[in-house]
Amino acid sequence: xxxxxxxxxPPGTRAAFARPGRPLPKPKRAGLCLGLLLLALGAPAARAxxxxxxxxxxxxxxxxxxxxxxxxxxxxxxxxxxxxxxxPEQTAAWFRRTLxxxxxxxxxxxxxxLGRAEGGYYLTVQxxxxxxxxxxxxxxxxxxxxxxxxxxxxxxxxxxxxxxPAGTQITSHLQAQDxxxxxxxxxxxxxxxxxxxxxxxxxxxxxxxxxxxxxxSTDSAQTAAGLPEQAAGLTLLFRxxxxxxxxxxxxxxxxxxxxxxxTSVQLELLP
Length: 271
Known about the structure:
The protein is of the alpha+beta class. It is built from five helices and twelve strands.
């Protein structure tokens, strides 16, 4: 009796993904915020499949599949590559108009990173100049976050509103527990400046045993690299015994400030 040959390996399944604590390979790196989010949330159990959100590409862009569904540190992910004749700034402007708000922006060298949460998924777009110096190329990542978001209790919302400047709106607060760690992902909006938000957030984290390790200014990094100015912002890196956190604070041209906070704590250290 002859056995049927095994099915062919889907394209993209040989791609190497980073182990926890190590950076992702450059072709698959989805940005600083997303990278820390994936590291913090670990490898949760799979949940029921839902309708994956679609990220539209510019009309003139050529797309290519990297993998219909991949896994990164246990989180289901779909990747799509694209190339377009439009310059990186034009391409980034198109995604800013179409991805929705709140939108978090970062830079990694020549790469522009745009990201936002949508339901139980995190959308990331990475844009960089084309390989021949003309046009732009990029990668779209849609990552399924672990579990259904826990209900936002009145106590949790009130707690973060007390910690952040007056008038802050908490738009998302996710929690996950896995691999001996407890992780949180918080998104907040207000109309205060980056420095005030950084001071209030830093004070709150110091009370929780964190110490500021590094502060990165988006403005100074862009100026030093000779890049055009984008939304003003700060990236703050914190660390404490058995815990780490990253906060990204960006202010857009309309005066709205977005705060994204990611934390990861060893379970045995929780009260």
